[in-house]
Amino acid sequence: MTVREIVRIGHPVLRQPARPVPPQEVGAAWVQSLIDDLIDTMRAACGAGLAANQIGEPVRVCVIEVGDNPRYPYKPRIPLTVLVNPELELLTDEVFDNYEGCLSVPDLRGVVARRVRVRVRALDRHGAPIDRVVEGLSAGTFQHELDHLDGVLFVDRVTDPHTLATWDEFDRRHREAFVHRVEALVARFGS
Question: Which parts of the chain are beta strand (E)?
Answer without folding.
Answer: 49-51, 61-66, 78-90, 95-102, 105-115, 117-123, 129-135
